[in-house]
Amino acid sequence: MIHISELAFNYASKPVYADFSLKLTQPGVVGLFGRNGSGKSTLLKILSGLLFPDHGKVEVLHYEPKRRLPAFLEQVYFVPEEFHLPDIKIAALQKHHAPFYPKFSHPDFVRYSEIFEIPQDKGFATMSLGQKKKAVIAFALATHTPLLLMDEPTNGLDIMGRAQFKQIMSGPEHADRLVLISTHQAHDLENLMNHVLFVDGGKIALSASMPQLQSALHLGITDDFSQTEGCIYHEALGNQWAYVAANHHNHAGKINLELLYKALSINKQGVLDAMSKNQPPVEKSA
Ligand SMILES: Nc1ncnc2c1ncn2[C@@H]1O[C@H](COP(=O)(O)OP(=O)(O)OP(=O)(O)O)[C@@H](O)[C@H]1O
């Protein structure tokens, strides 16, 4: 579905990607993680055809995004982190924009709008930031495009909004699409994710499915500091210690993505060594 090889991209003189490669071949929810400024939004814009690579090959759903062919654009929806909406009501949003997306589902849009409690009688100019974001997400999910790109979708949503987002995203109607989500709110979405990507230094630091992570890593909490010896990463948690270690027991445990993110930021090589030593015989990419 996504095939990038040897991508290079610079903003004027600011290099963001150099020799970046990535392959995602299966539908599912993929989390895109990385430090501030690591290039996540830039990648989503390149994939949606809003920015053009300087070098390398980018293929999405068998199209080159930079050509912006209508047959490509009707299959991809991008929810940016920041957006401007005209002062219209959500019924008008649907009327004017839905015809661009052949698989758009009116009943699903109504259902998602109800779950999100989006006001029907207000124009966007008088909606709150969270209400506008919910309207855009409800629309994006109702397009049923095979590829959905979302940049920080839960930013600006309250606790109920985040729960509503998870509820909608878990629906079986999204099972066949690839949903690539850039987020710093790892905890919000970790139960939904099938695969995670970490970008660092203009390259993919890690691309792994959840089963691969669960098989290779053991994340836990202990009262006994001596148990953190030899771990890939540990941190104080009140009177206890949270840690990331290589999984020597072959029990598939729960992956706390925030802890994994810190482990990768502080000791990337430790994580990669554990991953390379313990790979289950499962899919190699999402
Ligand atoms: N329009 C632009 N012109 C010049 N430089 C830019 C532009 N947009 C982004 N950058 C720079 O490119 C790099 C990557 O930015 P990008 O927004 O893709 O990062 P990000 O990973 O999405 O960051 P964040 O987590 O903070 O949202 C950053 O160093 C940023 O300063």
TrEMBL record:
Q: Tell me if rRNA-binding is a UniProt keyword of this record.
A: no
Q: What Gene3D superfamilies does the entry give?
A: P-loop containing nucleotide triphosphate hydrolases
* Alphabetized UniProt keyword annotations: ATP-binding, Cell membrane, Membrane, Nucleotide-binding, Transport
Could you tell me which residue ranges the ABC transporter domain spans? 2-226
Q: The organism sits in which domain of life? A: Bacteria
PROSITE patterns this protein is in?
A: ABC_TRANSPORTER_2
Q: Could you tell me which SUPFAM superfamilies the record lists for this protein?
A: P-loop containing nucleoside triphosphate hydrolases
Entries under InterPro entries matching the protein: AAA+_ATPase (IPR003593), ABC_transporter-like_ATP-bd (IPR003439), ABC_Transporter_VariousFunc (IPR051782), P-loop_NTPase (IPR027417)
Q: Name one GO molecular function term.
A: ATP hydrolysis activity
What is the protein's name according to its record? Answer: ABC transporter ATP-binding protein
